[in-house]
Amino acid sequence: MDPKYLSLVELLLSGAIGIGFCVWQYVSVSRSIAADKRKAADSPESAGHAVGEHHLDKG
Question: Which of 2, 3, 22, 48 to pair with 37, CA 20 to 30 A apart?
Answer without folding.
Answer: 22
